[in-house]
Amino acid sequence: MLRRHLLAAAPLLALPAIAAPARAQGAAQGLAQKPTPSGSSGDPLRLIVPAPPGGPTDILARLLAEKAAPALGRPVVVENRAGAGGIIGTEAAARAAPDGSTIVLGHNQTHASNQAMMARLPYHVVDSFTPVAKLATVHHALVVPASSPSRDMTGLIARGRQGKLSYASSQAGSASHVIAETLARREKLDATHIPYRGAAPAATDTMAGIVDFYVATFPSVAPLVREGKLRALEIGAPSRLNDFPDVPTAAEAGVPYLAVDAWFGLFAPAGTPPAAVEAIGKAMLDALAEPSSEERLLAAGFTTDPLLPQPFAAFQREEVARWAEMVRLTGVTMEG
Amino acid sequence: MLENLALGFDVALSLNNLMFAFLGALIGTAIGVLPGLGPTATISLLLPMTFGQEPVTAIIMLAGIYYGAQYGGSTTAILLNLPGEISGVVTALEGHQMARQGRAGAALAAAALGSFFAGTVSTAVVAAAGPALTAVALSFGPPEYFALMALGLVVSCVLARGSVVKAVAMVVVGVALGLVGTDVQTGQQRFTFGVPELADGINFVALAMGLFGVSEIILNLVHPENRSGNIAKRGPLWLSREEWRHAAPASLRGTLLGTALGILPGGGASISAFGSYMLERKITRRPEQFGRGAIEGLAGPESANNAGAQSAFIPLLTLGIPSNSVMALMVGALIIQGIQPGPRMIEAQPDLFWGLICSMWIGNLMLLIINLPMVGLWVQLLRVPYKFMYPAILAFCCIGAYSLNNNVFDVYVMMAASALGYAISRLNLDGAPLLLGFVLGPMMEEHLRRAMLLSRGDWMTFLERPISASLLAVAVLALALMISPAIRRRKDEALQEEAA
């Protein structure tokens, strides 16, 4: 009874109250920015990171913020708005004034797969945004425990057709889940999905042999693969990695459809003036191209993959269609 | 190992690193003292400060901030009944009662000494056996975690003052609140009513601050005679001989328990403080003191928590796997520095690995140096007139809640929780079991369902595995023990009636 009372009251009281200040803030910003619509004044550029501090998106954002500020002639403030798998921060960006004062660091989930997976997404992945720049990609790899009898993809697929397998994912509805389920559907494997809260516990249980395989972003498991605590059966890269010459590409392993990358890019609210989009995009890509940032991003597992606004927009449209197809095939949805 | 420790101390004792360890501990304490700003919030606020430094220096400073914030959080819990994290809930149970009796000085000193002792022991354990212990951690699968959580939840009813039925009821309310959010297994939203802010569940810190801290303010305003600010009596700042006698063995037990639980990456550390409190309460010879400022109920959990916090570094350092949100931030900080934490770190960067381990101990020593002289100052804080005190606390609570996710929603959660907390107090119920249910319930569900998925629906998985079977057996035993005194008493009463 207590619970019902509390929960029933919360949305009624809180909803209008949250929405109101957000709108008021947006309006105030709109007014303040009017004299300089390009947003190139000394006002700070707000870079929303829809994730908590310390994660990969946060690392990327903070590196760029530091390096792009001098070129932009204004400070870049990283604002962490975590929650609901990035939806809260992305929605905040979609609602922000489109005057070049706000951008968001989006990725393949917030700005592609969510559209097909969630019926009640509070923004549209394409229509609510103007693409600013693609920054980086991260490959996915399929890993098995060191103790696994499967030495290659053929072996794993054969096992999955004969007996029961289980696979970990970093989260239900994540790319990790959808890619693994795509494998299971296409190869007709009997594989149970075991979702985890994040990549760390999923990697731990894979290492301990609790699950049979796990599709992970490669950087999150690279040290464990190097140490032989996990074995990578394929990596979704166009060619083998220099540091891991023994890991075949997805195409070589006979599963080319698993070569689906995670990607990261900047988006501004729809309607942001093209001049502002161009200026911010150029400054960010210049910051990205600096040797020192490339080195640090490489260490963090990112492959820099710069794209200007126009090609990035085309890329995003392809990705939205591709994820819609994968979501249709696997039937993975995230319903409210 | 001695060679390695020598290398470590060589790194940690360099003037620069020593300074940053001190600075980290100082800043961490200062910020951690503010309500709602626990270690996670503090580190994420201060993370950018470390970007320009050498990797060793950066991680040493972050570790200092971590301990500092943890200790600062205990100070707030003791003085103001404002827990900023899970362990703070336990600290406040006895610590705040001590403060109300004018023994705040002794409580703060006991917390500092207990933490230091635990830190020393568990640092030695990490140094000596870190890599070997990783194997133990990996032997804990979903069934084992489920059994551990089940044991925790069963024994948590011991936490209750008074009626077991009431405690069970509060645990159930806590579990129910914990169910709000996205279901891990299916991604479905549960009890979120379309509010996206609820998709990640109710925030623990916002709930705890409202339930304890803010509701205490309401209570104090309703009943002015209860105010902790009215404590005119200013007790000694140091522990009495009697208090030493109770605190020291409790601290030792807490240290052992905390070290063992902290090694488990799946949330073992979070129950170490609760576990220690239950243990102390079970074995004490003066149960009547519990809930009225029993120092062993403070020293034990404080030691357990700090020991758990140290040994939580083991999975991070040996596997590169963060065991909690603070450790996840540390990984982020290392990666920004261009260092990939993982099994190779010990060989590839021995100065970093051993330097960090030694700086853990030095950080704990610094905390002692910083905090013991400050005890007097903190106690003075209680003498600030309440009319100045409570608006300041409320303001800090709101800032703290907002800073959790940069979202006003958590402030509303805190306000709703404070109304709940006030109702709970008026009904003579206890909030601590509620919070334990809130934390353990969802974890237990997650591990239960994962274990069932893995076994494809076979319940025997819990009994076939020796660790999970033994833990469940202990849980059943605890349940029986909990019920038995009631049975015995009833039997005694019946016998007396017959005799009469």
UniProtKB/TrEMBL annotation, chain A:
Signal peptide start-end: 1-19
CDD domains: PBP2_Bug_TTT
Keywords assigned by UniProt, alphabetized: Signal
Pfam families to which the protein is assigned, alphabetical: TctC
Annotated SUPFAM superfamilies: Periplasmic binding protein-like II (SSF53850)
The keyword Phosphoprotein is annotated on this UniProt entry: no
Domain of life: Bacteria
Protein family according to the UniProt entry: Belongs to the UPF0065 (bug) family.
PANTHER family found in the cross-reference section: BLR1237 PROTEIN, TRICARBOXYLATE-BINDING PROTEIN
Protein name per UniProt: Tripartite tricarboxylate transporter substrate binding protein
Protein source organism: Teichococcus oryzae
TrEMBL record, chain B:
Top-level taxon of the source organism: Bacteria
UniProt keywords, alphabetically: Membrane, Transmembrane, Transmembrane helix
Keyword Ion transport appears in the UniProt entry: no
Transmembrane segments annotated in the record for this chain: 20-38, 45-69, 105-133, 167-184, 204-222, 255-279, 312-336, 352-376, 388-404, 467-487
InterPro entries: DUF112_TM
Stored Pfam families: TctA
Residues covered by the DUF112 domain: 18-436
PANTHER family: TRICARBOXYLIC TRANSPORT PROTEIN
Protein name (Swiss-Prot/TrEMBL): Tripartite tricarboxylate transporter permease
